[in-house]
Amino acid sequence: MRVHTQRLLAAAQEDPSGIVPIVQAGHPVLRMVAEPYDGQLDGSELEALIAVMRRTMHAAPGVGLAAPQIGLPLALAVVEDPGPIDDEMRIARERPAVPFRVLVNPRYTAIGEERAAFYEGCLSVEGYQAVVARPRLVRLTGADETGAVLDEVVSGWPARIVQHETDHLGGTLYVDRALLRSLAATDDLGGSWAAEPHPVAAAKALGFDLER
User: Fold this and answer.
1) How do residues 147-181 score in pLDDT, each as one tens digit?
2) How are strands ordered across the β-sheet holding 128-135?
3) Dihedral (C-alpha) 212, 141, 77, 125: value to the nearest 10 degrees?
4) Which of 45, 80, 113, 165 is an active site residue?
5) Residues contributing to the annotated binding site for Fe cation
6) Is 165 a catalytic residue?
7) Cα-based distances in Å from 200 to 162, 170, 211
8) 98, 79 Cβ separation under 8 angstroms
């Protein structure tokens, strides 16, 4: 793992932007269970890896990136979301700004039965998006990059991001959980479906049930 990480860091140093490629669906690393992080890297290597992941996430752009998405099967993810500009979208999707944070060996468990269905995309499934019904409230456990324990309740869109990125560490892509009739290209039409505060028009036009 350390040698693999060092190669990634060297590749990032060779790129003027300091980023690395994001692997796409079909790459076996995206279907592996990531190795738990237990100090395989020294402090400077972990810090450099997190910086590369953050730059790569921003450049994509995205609101989360898991280590397997850059070809590294390690249980590590970064998240950051500036939130939507549109107030209607922010309220409907419960999408506040999420400051940058690192998730180490994260796990989540649903709290209650309430679910929310919205379009999602993925940096490792370029060009498409689909509706995923996910638990609205989850308990997030794990640690941060300093080793501090995480044990908190996360709701709304931040909970969706946590679930999406943590799923990557178990070899699960969002399309595995999606309502497949909602699958849409990220072109003008598909973009309009994803831009709805709630995907009501898409459900009617494409024939899927938001209550599933």
Assistant:
1) 999 999 999 999 999 999 999 999 999 999 999 99
2) 115-121, 128-135, 178-185
3) -10
4) 165
5) 122, 164, 168
6) yes
7) 24, 31, 11
8) yes
Residue 105 CA to chain centroid, in angstroms? 14
pLDDT, position 212: 61
Domains of the chain by start residue, with CATH? 2-206 (3.90.45.10)
- Cβ–Cβ under 8 Å, residues 162 and 191: no
**Rounded Cα distance, 68 and 189, in Å:** 30
CB-based burial label for 3 (10 Å; 0-12, 13-18, 19+): exposed
Strands 115-121 and 98-110: unpaired
Average pLDDT over every residue of 10-25 = 95
Does an H or E element contain 134, and which?
Answer: strand 128-135
- Each residue's pLDDT tens digit, 99-126: 999 999 999 999 999 999 999 999 999 9
pTM given for the model: 0.95
Instruction: Give pLDDT tens digits for 52-91.
Output: 999 999 999 999 999 999 999 999 999 999 988 888 889 9
